[in-house]
Amino acid sequence: MTENTLRTVHVAVYDTLADWEIGFVTAHVNSPAWHRTPGRFAIRTVGATDAPVTTMGGLRVLPDLTLDALTPADSAMLILPGNELFATEAYHPYLAKAREFRAAGVPVAAICGATGGLALAGLLDDHEHTSNAAEFLNGLGYGGAHLYRDEPAVNDRGLITGAAQAPIEFARAIFAELGIYEPGVLDSWYKLYGRQDPAGFYELMSA
């Protein structure tokens, strides 16, 4: 891969998608402003079908492609936003794709309800992880409770999990895994957005 090769980050879309949980991710992955290599990444949405979906915020999203057309080799990461479908049959195709990605060694990131889906699919049984609360996952009867970490976001060997209340930390973990920003730039990014410190803005501008 050359330095200017465009890599794609795929965001799963489905009805009840929690818009606010991935806003920082999509805006900054898709923007070359502070990337280590400008234009290196782009966002594409993927759905179970090509029909429009409606987010929790009422936005209608038309998927760029369908799950059956997506292969791990074509993706830098699969992101699963929070949702209200994670425990239903409608979510199974997304979990199957997440399992395929992990088997191929491609990162997967899940937040909020999507972590519940991963738990039900057994994908958290052998990885350190987090979620909205330990009680949330324990109530699903999964086998990974001993690996739960009470942190905003956790990355264990390319499996990223985040709490609903921590979209900024979730984004930071994704950026670090993808190598989008130099470490010092990522620190400044978090200083601005995570700590609301305006000094981070000026650091970013100088970077």
UniProtKB/TrEMBL annotation:
Pfam families: DJ-1_PfpI
Keyword Electron transport: no
One of the protein's GO biological processes: proteolysis
Domain DJ-1/PfpI, chain residue ranges per copy: 8-176
Domain of life per record: Bacteria
GO molecular function: peptidase activity
Family annotation (InterPro entries): Class_I_gatase-like (IPR029062), DJ-1/PfpI (IPR002818)
Keywords: Hydrolase, Protease
Name of protein: Putative intracellular protease/amidase
Native source species: Kribbella amoyensis
Source species taxonomy: Bacteria, Bacillati, Actinomycetota, Actinomycetes, Propionibacteriales
